Amino acid sequence: MIFNHFHDAYLYTLAEVYHKPQFYNQPRGNRSREVLNYTYGIESPIERICYVPERKTNIIFNFAEALWYLSGSNNLDFIHYYASNMSKYSADGRTLTGTAYGPKLFAYGDKRLNQWERIKEVLREDPDSKRAFLSIFDASEVLQLENIDVSCTIGLQFFIREGQLYMSSYMRANDAYRGMLSDVFSFTFLQELMATELGIEVGKYYHNVASVHIYETDYVQTKTVLSKAKQIGTVPAYPFPPMPLKDNRSDLQVVFEYEQQLRQGTITLKPVDIDRLDIDDYWKQVILLFAVYQSIQQKKVIDHTLYQKLIPLYQMLVQQKWESYFSIIMEEM
Fold first, then answer.
1. Does residue 235 surpass a pLDDT of 70?
2. Can you tell me the distance from the alpha carbon of 235 to that of 224, in angstroms, rounded to the nearest whole number?
3. What is the mean pLDDT of residues 192-208?
4. In sequence order, what are the residues at sequence separation of 6 or more whose Cβ sits closer than 8 angstroms to the Cβ of residue 19?
5. Which of the two residues, 144 and 61, has the higher pLDDT score?
6. Boundaries of each Thymidylate synthase/dCMP hydroxymethylase domain copy (predicted)?
7. CA-atom Rg of the chain in angstroms
8. What confidence tier does 113 reach under pLDDT thresholds 50, 70, 90?
9. Are the C-beta atoms of residues 54 and 225 closer than 8 Å to each other?
10. DSSP readout, 177-190?
11. Mean pLDDT, the chain, whole residue set
12. CA 314 to CA 61: how far, in whole Å?
């Protein structure tokens, strides 16, 4: 199946796995519904989110996870700040192994291979190449039940076809309700970033999963999302902003610096501070999201001055995710 946006692909997948499961099973004791060998494509990978309000898409975590990968870090403290439940996957309380894709991208194996730069070289040397494969799953990972953090993603493959960058992801397993939401966001974000570094347009994205499943703990939420989706149709309320058509690496470094300082609490930012940054507006919006999140984490409120500077799409997503905080804002206005 080919869909225009991830929104459509996500809802279709939820319905297929929930209503037409191929198997009922309970890996590691967790009851689930499962479909094997599942594939779909997305015409416009930039449209990488679900718009159903009841799904409460966490746009801040989505950007944080993609940037965590791009930072090359496996440190728990980075991603734990945005999703505290990630700590349960860490064996030593400090790092993550299977879940942390960054080291696989930029320092793979004993040779610490920078796969990101290598596949760029492959595609520049031979634009028609079928060798631009980025490995994530490591055969040395412990597969026994003692290890809760095994890489779900086998790898990502890039193709230049008719002047556009196509990408295929290959996953051994994907949680349709939870994991797919953040995985497709991160993978298509990487696809778009690679396209800007190669100076070409973004082509289609293909999602290939050996085992796509929904756990019993998410059955009620799945039914709610599918029910509410019928009321909003398939057209996104606002388009997702495209990444600047340039080499974004210098802007990304600024984002990394400010993300770390906001996360560690060494700075606070006002809208004027972000406006003054010498980076594209696209990346200023990402820093704004992290600044909004700092106010949520530290003060348990939404900083209204920062929130008002977000583009309408991000405002909508933040309000959907942290709906209870906005009653406080309305009382203060």
1. no
2. 19
3. 98
4. none
5. 61
6. 9-231
7. 20
8. very high
9. yes
10. TTHHHHHHHHHHHH
11. 94
12. 12
User: Is residue 328 scored above 80 in pLDDT?
Assistant: no
CA dist., res. 42 & res. 46, Å (int): 9
User: Angle, nearest 10°, between helix axes 179-198 and 6-19?
Assistant: 150
User: What does the DSSP 8-state code read for residue 128?
Assistant: T
Per-residue pLDDT, averaged over 194-211, amounts to 98
Tokens 């734990």 label which residue? 80
Per CATH, which fold does 2-232 belong to? Answer: Thymidylate Synthase; Chain A (3.30.572)
Q: Helix 281-299 to helix 249-264 angle, to the nearest 10 degrees?
A: 10
Question: Does pTM surpass 0.70?
Answer: yes
Question: Please, what's the b/e burial string for 275-304 (b: 16 or more CB within 10 A of its CB; e: otherwise)?
Answer: eebebeeebbbbbbbbbbbbbbeeeeebbe
- Distance of alpha carbon 271 from alpha carbon 305, whole angstroms: 7
C-alpha torsion angle, residues 138, 35, 6, 19 (rounded to 10): -150
Structure tokens at 135: 């490995």
What are the residue ranges spanned by the domains of the chain? 2-232, 249-332
Residue 261 burial (CB < 10 Å; 0-12/13-18/19+)? middle
Read off the amino acid at residue 258.
Y
Instruction: Please report the pLDDT score of residue 331 as a whole number.
Output: 43
pLDDT in tens, 262-276: 999 999 999 999 999
Taking the C-alpha atoms of residue 288 and residue 310, their distance in angstroms, rounded to an integer, is 7
Alpha-helix runs per DSSP H in the chain: 6-19, 59-71, 76-80, 102-106, 115-125, 179-198, 219-232, 249-264, 271-275, 281-299, 304-307, 312-321, 323-332
pLDDT-based confidence at 297, cuts 50/70/90?
very high
Give, as one character, the DSSP assignment of residue 303. Answer: -
Local structure of 140: helix, strand or coil: coil
pLDDT score of 329: 47
